[in-house]
Amino acid sequence: MRIDTLTYNNIQTQGAQRRAWLRQHSPQHLQHCAALMLHALQKRQQSASRSTLALGAGACTEVPLAELARDSDEVVLADLDLASMRQGRDELSSPALRKRVRLLACDISGGVSASLNRLIEQQPWDKLGPRGTQVIFDTAARCLEQCPVPDPPEIEGIRPGESGAVISSLVLSQLFSYPLLDILDHIQRIAPSYLGEQERHRRYQEAAEAFRVHVIQAHLHLLRELVDVGGLVALVCDVRGFVFDVHGAGNDTEHRRTIPLVPRIFFDLVRSNFSVLEEAQWEWITDFPEKGKLGRGYEVVGYVLAC
Q: pTM of the predicted model, to two decimals?
């Protein structure tokens, strides 16, 4: 499963070295993320809990951990990647601040990837492959349709309503994209010539879209459940990716190709679950083009939300 490689991938893309790169090449990304997360703390009601929860924190590349710890009685970092969270906490220079940070290794989707993987493994793919792409992608669609998505997920170690500020840090699109990539990875292994054909299969496309929406709804419901009365939510989510092949043309729409990440209904789902107190949109570059490799970036939306 893709989530099994999360720690290795995060070593390449998170932490102090990555933050220094972003300060040089995408400083607005770090600024917007920090501002929204800190505003969620600063604008919560006085009666709300002084505990802060950061979902998908990783190594806290975008999470201003020192500031959060100074303004909170406790900061809980929740992520599948325990090693990265330790790295983020250990960057704090103050022992007193480090003591305020609790690490919780967990799958904040509620085990969606594992559930889908079990369904994939139950299918007789060796018999289905010779029957053509329609059968393969109908089977893949059925796996997505049958995959349980806990709504909201239960996360052991986190109680409902105990956090005055709940942060979802660039994790939402991963919750559905990793499982979807898992199923395409499997198809590539059993029938490499079929990869890319999924765009032509309506049932698969509809199942994948419904799966995305269900996972998004479950995550939004989780945020609502975890935040205390009078508390606020900071949600930061990449909504489109883009690639480009001209150095320095990351902000030039003429030289890039966009890749949708979240369904259009995402924005309506946010507003149907929360009151939007703040909203910001920006772009950030993650990689510049190199020989034989495209540059990459993302369009991001960030919110401060109240229930």
A: 0.91
